[in-house]
UniProtKB/TrEMBL annotation:
Gene source species: Solicola gregarius
GO MF entry, a single one: monooxygenase activity
Keyword Oxidoreductase: yes
Pfam families named among the record's database cross-references: ABM
Keywords of this entry: Monooxygenase, Oxidoreductase
Domain ABM: from-to ranges: 2-90
Coiled coil: none
PROSITE patterns for this protein: ABM
Domain of life assignment: Bacteria
Protein name (database record): Antibiotic biosynthesis monooxygenase
Length: 108
C-alpha cells in the first residue's frame, strides 16, 4: 500500500473556499480503481492548514493517479491558493487498509 500525507498551507483569503475548490479533484481521485481513501482534515491550531491523508493499493495505482488528467487539473486549482510549498510523506508499506487501535479496543 502507498500511504501519503500532504500538509497544505493556503493563503488566508482562500481558506474558506479550499475544500469546495478541490472537491472535483477529491471526487475524481476517490473514483480511481486503486484508491483506498482520500480524506481531508483541517488543523485545529492553524485555520490555513489542511492535511490530506490518502492511500493507494500499490505503486502502480499511485503512478496511475499522478498520470490522470484530473491530477494536473487539481494541482492547477491549488497552486494559486497556496501560501507555501506543501510538505509530503509518501511511503510504501505493508497492508491494505486501516488496522484497529488495540489500546482503545471497544466491544462493538
Amino acid at each position: 500500500m502507498i500511504f501519503i500525507v500532504v500538509r497544505f498551507t493556503v493563503k488566508s483569503e482562500h481558506r474558506d473556499e479550499w475544500l469546495d475548490r478541490v472537491r472535483p479533484f477529491t471526487e475524481a481521485t476517490r473514483g480511481e480503481p486503486g484508491n483506498l481513501w482520500f480524506d481531508w482534515s483541517r488543523s485545529v491550531d492553524d485555520p490555513d492548514e489542511f492535511v490530506l491523508v490518502e492511500a493507494f493499493r500499490d505503486a502502480d495505482a499511485g503512478a496511475d493517479h499522478v498520470s490522470n488528467p484530473h491530477f494536473q487539473a487539481g494541482l492547477d486549482t491549488m497552486r494559486p491558493m497556496l501560501a507555501t510549498t506543501p510538505d509530503i510523506i509518501n511511503v510504501d508499506m505493508p497492508g491494505d487498509g486501516w488496522s484497529r487501535m488495540a489500546e482503545l479496543e471497544l466491544d462493538d
